[in-house]
Amino acid sequence: MSLILDIADAVVAELAAGVEADAFSIPFTPARKVLPLYELADLAELHVTVMPKAVLAAAATRASRQYDVTIDVGVQQKLTGDLDDEIVVLLDLVEELSDFLARRPLADAAHARWVSSANDPVYAPEHLLDHRSFTSVLTLTYRAVGSGEVGGT
């Protein structure tokens, strides 16, 4: 399997382990998808979706390459109550996800190390306005060093 899918699947496994250990304020079932399209009715339930985004390869040494693998984690839910109250809870969850993944190695991808996290958009105002739904994207970068092709670490 490709390096980016290995890391995306490892992020899903790590999040699932965190849910199992009650590490997050809201329970959810993480899933990896290549195209995270949901009907608005499906968003009544919280969705945490892991998506492969990009791979940047560079020389690490003469014989090896460094791969910066970018993974997006989307957090989506239809809001039914007070927007300000519900957004605070979901923004807290996004911060929990970021902190959790930054301080834990990926058990299923030991060759990859966390480098950075970015939360952009913190939430999508147009989704709130048009659909009353919360959408936030957490972008994670992991670094892996290996030889040969992208999947050949």
Characterize the structure shown.
The structure is a single chain. The chain has 153 residues and is an alpha+beta fold. The protein has a five-stranded mixed beta sheet, sandwiched between helices. It has a single domain, classed as Phage tail protein-like (STM4215-like, 2-Layer Sandwich), CATH 3.30.2000. The chain is elongated. The chain has helices spanning 3-20, 83-103, 125-131, and strands at 30-32, 47-59, 65-78, 112-119, 133-146. The termini are close together.
Instruction: List unreliable stretches of 5+ residues.
Output: 149-153
| CATH class type | Alpha Beta
Shape: elongated
Mean of residue pLDDT? Answer: 93
Main β-sheet, spatial strand arrangement: 1-2-3-5-4
N-to-C order of helices and strands: HEEEHEHE
Instruction: Decide which structural class fits the backbone.
Output: alpha+beta
Give the helix tally: 3
Multimeric state:
single chain
Kindly, what is the distance between the CA atoms of the first and last residues, rounded to a whole number of angstroms?
11 Å
CATH architecture: 2-Layer Sandwich
| Rg (CA only) | 16 Å
The CATH topology label is STM4215-like
Strand percent estimate: 25-35%
Q: State the CATH superfamily name.
A: Phage tail protein-like
Largest pleated sheet: 5 strands, mixed
